[in-house]
Amino acid sequence: MSADPARVATARQLLAHLGVTLADLQAEPGPGLPTLAEYLPQVVAAAGPGTRRTYGTYWQRMAAVWGDRPLDAVAASDIEALQRQAAATARSRRNSRSGRHAGELVIAAARAIYNRAIADGLIDPAASPAHRVVKPRRLPSTRRALTPDEMEEINLAARTSGNDVILDALALRLHTETACRRGGALGLRLADLDTGRGLVRLTEKGATLRWQPITLDLAAHLDDHARARGAILPTDRLLRYRNGRPITSRRYDHLWKRIGEQLPWVAAQGISTHWLRHTTLTWVERHYGYGIARAYAGHTDSTGPATTTYIKADLQAVATALAAMTGQPHPLAMTEAAFRCLAGDRSSLTDHHLDGGECGRWGSGPRASCRTRRQASVELLKRAAAAASSKPHILLGCSEDGLYASWWP
To answer: pLDDT by residue (tens digit) across 25-41?
Structure first.
């Protein structure tokens, strides 16, 4: 029996509308989407070490629960249920917030899987269940800048307890001077230390890299510490245990637990190494402004107002802030002559200062550079000069007898 021509025509029109040909209908069906357990190894292989460390636990839980399901068989409600479960069973820590962060990481880990599936062309972006689950709003941070008295109490507790007070004093001093994160300090190698110019090369979040000024005393003590404990090759780590092994993040955990046992307010507020970063950057921002604080922190992101594109500070400005904060001179810090030049006072400057000397550091044309920078920097330099004339190094918990008089046993 022959088919109705009208129906055949209608079917042809429908296939044309769908973009399907008769050859497509006659072809063998292709393989379906892989299951989560089959696809997860590809996601892990493509992820960086930090991503694997952050999401690894949650990926294992997803594989245990949804491992036999194809990628398109996981629903948004499944992810949300796992989020609630992770929040309810999260381990209570000093800085925990009722599992809120654990629940957020479940969503982020699921999105990482489906972002890779989208990039591989396995699913359409609109079909991702992970992106249909709303992340919980982040609560404001409870961290704040520590007061000078609180800093002194913390430093005193660290250097009068524990089995390696030199290591602990070095670590606290390093974080206070550089405002670096734990990962930046743990990754420091001999090759990252410039003792002559007072610099350390920090590698931090997102593989960002920067040279950060430190005092010459700290640079010398870091070098002595590393070499005395077995560091020889340029790739050897700086911070090391007495037995020569490089320290890990566990050292920080033990340090703050010990300080919390001696100072109950430290344990109650959940103070950690990151609070030192807040303390230093707050001081720099208050005395030197947002632009220098941003450079001091190593922030390179472009989020925020468009004005941040033009608010930049160089290494000399960061070194000047460090010198004022610690009360110690730094080879890269701006001199009084440079301050006066930028502020518009040339009465005491020599031809060397004006022609390729102190002012020449600021641009290709010394005179033009000074005029341009002077207009934008007068108020900033007034605040900086006032800060340098005070005793801000008390912030670091050091005695008047010297930078390390109260640090080294």
So the answer is: 665 555 678 999 999 99
List of residues 6+ apart from 48 with CB closer than 8 A: none
The tens digit of pLDDT for each residue in 319-352 reads 999 999 999 999 999 865 564 455 444 444 443 3
Q: 276 near 284, Cβ under 8 Å?
A: no
Phi and psi at residue 402, to the nearest 5°: 160, 160
Contact criterion met (CB below 8 Å) for 135 and 84? no
CA torsion sign for 160, 166, 171, 174 is: positive
Note the pTM of the prediction, 2 decimals.
Answer: 0.67
Report residues of the chain scoring pLDDT below 50. Answer: 339-340, 343-382, 384-385, 387-409
Choose among 390, 396, 407: nearest CA to 279.
Answer: 396
Left (φ > 0), alpha (ψ -120 to 50) or beta: where does 121 sit? left
DSSP letter for each residue of 120-145: TTSS-GGG-SGGGSPPPPPPPP---P
User: For residue 27, what is the DSSP state?
Assistant: S
Would you say how long the chain is, in residues? 409
Q: Which residues contact 231 (CB under 8 A, 6 or more apart)?
A: 190, 237, 238, 240
Q: What is the pLDDT of residue 368?
A: 38
**Which of helix, strand or coil describes residue 212?**
strand
Tell me how far apart the alpha carbons of residues 281 and 292 are, in angstroms, rounded to a whole number.
Answer: 9
Taking the C-alpha atoms of residue 92 and residue 270, their distance in angstroms, rounded to an integer, is 12
Q: How far apart are CA 404 and CA 394, in angstroms?
A: 12
Q: Token pair of 182, please?
A: 């734990």
pLDDT tens, position by position, 201-247: 999 887 789 999 999 999 999 999 999 999 999 999 999 999 999 99
